Structures are given as structure tokens and as C-alpha cells.
Amino acid sequence: MKWNDKKTSEPNRTSQNSDGTYSVHSEYKLPGRFFSHPDSVVRVSWKHDSMEDWESRELSVHDKDFPWKANVQDITVPNLLIGKAAVLKCEVSNVFPDVLTVKWLKKEKGGQDLFPVVHSQTYNISELRPEKQKDKTFTYKLCLKFKPSISTEEGAEFICRVEHPTLEVPAEKSTGPLTIKGDHPLPSPVLGLHTTSPLL
């Protein structure tokens, strides 16, 4: 057996089946960032005396059988109150390899153009950090913190755009048009007592 036209340094494990045939198990260890480039391909080839020629199988990040596909979660929109800090979270799970680009974009009310959201006094964007999971994949989270305003956020949309080698096109999740609510205290009820004296 060969991996990418090279013999593996690990010995193959052979086991006999109940019908008298044999099964061969072969492993090939790759650098963690091998699949960082979308054109990277792993090819395993095998040849037996009963075969006329080599046979092979390939695996790349675009194959349906590729076990890791970056999964972008829906954005949960909290209650947005005027002047009260709010946080939008963009979470991406099942990431491998750990090469990821995540951006926040904004679409103005009634518009179609997307504008990049940058870290500023208005918009606080957290640092993008990977969290390694038990299955060796990574989870990323990018938070956007801001204080909603009727003039700038009412009816606008925030979009999280994710780029990863396993995605043929960038994946996007949107908040949908935002609704900003006022944060004014309700008027206190006024209790009054009105009596009418009987006419004498």
C-alpha cells in the first residue's frame, strides 16, 4: 500500500477473516495543516498479486465523505434596547484544519450593499480564538458588542461571513432586520380617591 505515492512508515496490520480472506489496515499521519489548501489531496493506492494494476482512492476537503465540514451556527439575537449593550455571537464548530476567517458585515436598512464592521468605539469585536474539542476539531466564536441606536441599527442587518478550506463558497448567517426597542420606564400609576357627599 502507498499513501500519496509513498510507502507509509507505519507497518500495515493484517487480520484474517472468518471466510479465510484477510483485511489490511494502514494508517498515514499528516501534518495538521495539510488540508489548509483546498486543492490538497490524499491518495491511498494498493496492489495485490491477484490484481493486474494498482487501484487507488482519493480524499479532499470538497468530497462528500470528508469527515470535517465547518458548521456555522445561527445567530441568536437578544432583546435590543436603546443604549443598552448587546452582544451578537457568531460560532463555528467542527473546524479542521484550524485555518479560519470570520468577518462581521453590516447591511443598512433598505440597502443591499454589505459594509465591513471594524473594531471601533461603536463596535467592539472580540479576538478570534480556537477552542480545541475532544474530537480534535476546533470551535471558534467571534462576538460583536454594541449599544443599539434607532438611527444606526433599526432595520439594519448584521451578517457573519465564514471562509474555510472545506467551504467552496463563504458561509453566511444573518440576524435579519433588527428591531430596536425603547428603554423608558413605565409611568407610575396614580391612585386617587373621589367621594361624593349625599345632599342633605
From TrEMBL:
Q: Which Gene3D superfamilies match?
A: Immunoglobulins
Entry's InterPro entries?
Answer: Ig-like_dom, Ig-like_dom_sf, Ig-like_fold, Ig/MHC_CS, Ig_C1-set, Immune_Resp_Modulators
Question: Does Mitochondrion count among this protein's keywords?
Answer: no
Entry keyword annotation includes Cytoplasm: no
In terms of superkingdom, the source organism counts as Eukaryota
Q: Which UniProt keywords apply?
A: Immunoglobulin domain
Q: Basic and acidic residues: which segments have biased composition?
A: 1-10
- Spell out the residue ranges making up region: Disordered: 1-24, 172-200
> Which residue stretches does the UniProt record annotate as biased composition, category Polar residues?
11-24
Q: Where is the Ig-like domain?
A: 67-179
Q: Which SUPFAM superfamilies match?
A: Immunoglobulin
The protein's name is Ig-like domain-containing protein
Q: Which organism is it from?
A: Aquarana catesbeiana
